[in-house]
Amino acid sequence: MFVLVALVGSWTSEFFFTVRNLENIVVAASVVAVLGVAQFIVVVTRGIDLSVGSVAALSTVITAVLLRQGQGVLVTVVVALLACAFCGFINGILVVYARIAPFVATLAMLSIARGVAFLVQVGTLIVISNRDFLDIFGGRTGSVPNVVIIALIVTLIAAFVMRFTPLGRRLYALGGNPEAARLSGLPVKRDQVMAYTTSGLLAGLAGLMLAGRLSQGSSLVGAGYELDSIAATVVGGTSLFGGTGDPISTVLGALIIGMIGNIMNLAGIQSEPQLVIRGLVILVAVFLTSGGGIQRIRAGLSKLRRGGRSGADGGGPTPAPAPPEPVEAAGRSDLSAEPRPTPPHDSTEGTR
Length: 352
Fold this sequence. Notes:
Blueprint: H1 2-12, H2 19-43, H3 52-68, H4 73-96, H5 102-121, E1 126-127, H6 131-138, E2 140-141, E3 144-145, H7 146-164, H8 166-176, H9 178-183, H10 188-214, E4 216-217, H11 225-235, H12 247-266, H13 271-289, H14 293-312, H15 333-336
Antiparallel strand pairs: 1-4, 2-3
Helix pairs in contact: 1-12, 2-7, 2-10, 2-11, 2-12, 3-4, 3-5, 3-10, 4-5, 4-10, 6-10, 7-8, 8-10, 11-12, 11-13
């Protein structure tokens, strides 16, 4: 899919494979990649987090307010990340202990975080002028943008944790079969809360990246990023039923989503049709990964191949199998080999 989208982009515009355009794609996809990893950690446990975009917006506003008040970069970053992790922690508590459906709990947090960001912002966006902060989250290391480096580090850490640590194996087990994980003595509730808390923490980090790129804090940024993060997760092959997937594939899904958006921009497609196309991409990806679409396609192809083979054989009715030969009784093989005598003809047999 990645190669196919790249070929479509090169066919759509001659500027697609220019260095500047590819850099724009990677930089824009970096934020979606971090949010996609956050979404993946929740989805792999059979949950979902619709609040990642709003939590990222809250992170930009908190960052801008603290920097305007003269706080240091380290204090600002720590406070913003802790506030966003607390939002994720509340999501986990609502899902695990209040037994509220993840969709409903995180949808409520989406509204709460966006509203708090607007109240803290006091109605106007806040410009960030702290050079140290902008150099860290909006600058470059050599010729590589720092946001790309941050996204790469997050991806590698998440991939290592999910593949080589007991926590990662527990999260896969929790998503694969929650009841079996509980009966096995795994800390199911603690791991679920940790997954949502980590999602909030990574959403806060994505907000810091947005603040560095845009040089401002605003409650309006991050709108629609929850859909992009879900799309990146399912396009990367993670099932919404949990227990499968990996962070690296999620990041590749984020790059695919970024390329699709870039192609639509180069083609001059307006923002409204872009929403329709993104929704269709999500539907197709969910059908293939969570709806058994790949298995259905394979089954259909197998039927076509079987039908083609039967047609090549002539398409006629299948001949009936030959009747089985009589089996002689055990111990009488010597008698069956001898000819049986013909009874004498009786002329009165018909009369009788």
